[in-house]
Every structure is written in structure tokens, then in C-alpha cells.
Design brief:
- With 276 residues, this protein is an alpha+beta fold.
- The chain has one domain: Lipocalin (Beta Barrel).
Length: 276
Amino acid sequence: MRMKLPYGMMALVVVAQMMVPPRASWAQDNRQGGPAQSGTSASFNPRDFSGIWDLSEGSRGISRRPGEGMPPMTPLGQKQLEANKPSYGPRAVPPSVGNDAVGECNPQGMPRILLFPRPVEFVMLPDRMFQVFQWHRVLREIWIDGRTLPADFNPDFRRWYGYSAARWEGNTLVVETAGFDDRAWLDHFGYPKSDQMRLEERYTRTGPDSIQVNMTIHDPKMYTRPWVAEMKTFTRVPRQETISEGWLGLMEELCVPLDELDFNRRVRDAAGGVRR
């Protein structure tokens, strides 16, 4: 038997219902890593990196300052460094006379794309993790299914972002990547890498809204010993900052040659005194 509410009580119920915010659209309702997205939950799964993150502590370089902590280079590494002409750091030249391939919309490669100041979304699946980078809309696939990279891994087909296999050490995800295309630089300061480079990344979720990343570069062709990078911290991007035009998620921020080449002509070339 239903209980009849007095008219006054019914009015209060109606008013209360009117004050409840409307349900978000289907585009806004896709959660980014569960309830901890808002940063208010003290509990979290340390093995779940799901969500949209942004570099909050640490520089865009391998080290905080260009070359800081860098091991001595091999003769080949030094020769390649001198051939690279970046537009950032103490060796910077005007983009119009530089040779940074990114200026023509070529891939940034690893770990440079990870250090670029744009959000990256982590998508966790049972056998792998995807990293979706807003800048260039790059998709990186990291396998967590038991496969490993042989010590002599030397694939015929080189990848800009390499081949990645990971394992868990406690709650730290250890990612090993090799098989790189050596035309991409390590960072925007122009430090080189070879096709023999192996990159180790260690991801540790230290709280509901933070991930620490430690990287080590192993490249005996370019550096006489491993290069241990400055520790980077990624912070969860608040939900309200990932909504644009009522749409939840990463923006489409592509590097479009039609636009980039025009920008080079109008801005970069002009800054270097080049007129076309």
C-alpha cells in the first residue's frame, strides 16, 4: 500500500528534484579513471592509470637544464649533436635555419612527446595500456601481456615510438621500449638517439591525482653510460578542464602541414630574417 504524502511535503519533494543538476550528456558521462577524477577521493587503485594527465613537475628536457647530468658522449654522439640545430636551449638557432623535423609535422618520437606540455590520456586494458597524446593525436601501445624485448632486439621496421613491453614491479609499471627510428631527437634541445637506444620508464601512481615517471636512456652508440632523466610528475587534469563545446575528452590538436608550412613562412622564417 502506498503512503500518500501531504500536499506540503509533495511540494518540497518537487522543489528538491528541481534543484538536482540535470544528468550530463552522453559525451560528458564517460568517466576518466573513476570517482577519483575530481581529486576528492583518498582511495585509488595504484595499478590503474586511467584518466587524462598533464606534466606538472619537471622540464621539457631530459634534464632540468640542457645537458645537466648527461653522461659523456661518444664521438658519434658528439658529431650528431653538432649536426642537430634546435630552436631551444643554449644551441638555439632561428627555426628558419634549424633542422628540427618537428617543424614540418614529423613525429616527435619518445620520450620527446611525453615531455610536450599537452595532456595525455592513459587507457588501461587487461593486456596493454594505451597512451593517447593530444598533441599530434599520437597513439602509443604498451603491452602488459608477458612479452619481453630481447636484449638483441633489432627489428627490420623501425618505429618513431618504438616497440613497448611492460611488467609490474610491485605497483610500479616498468616499460621497456626499443626499435626506434633514430631521426627523432630525445627532446627539443636536439640531443640525439640511435637505432640501438632502449628507453626504460617507471610509472608509479603516488596518489589519486599524481603519477611519478622515472626514465633512463640506454644508448651506447651515443652516450658512454646510461642517462638518468630528471623525475617527472603528471597530475590529473580536472574534469571541467577537459570539456570543450560540451564534449568531454582530449582536443583534436593535429599538426597539419598546410597550416604548419604557412606558419613557418609567416613567423619562423621571418624571425630568422628569411623572406620567401
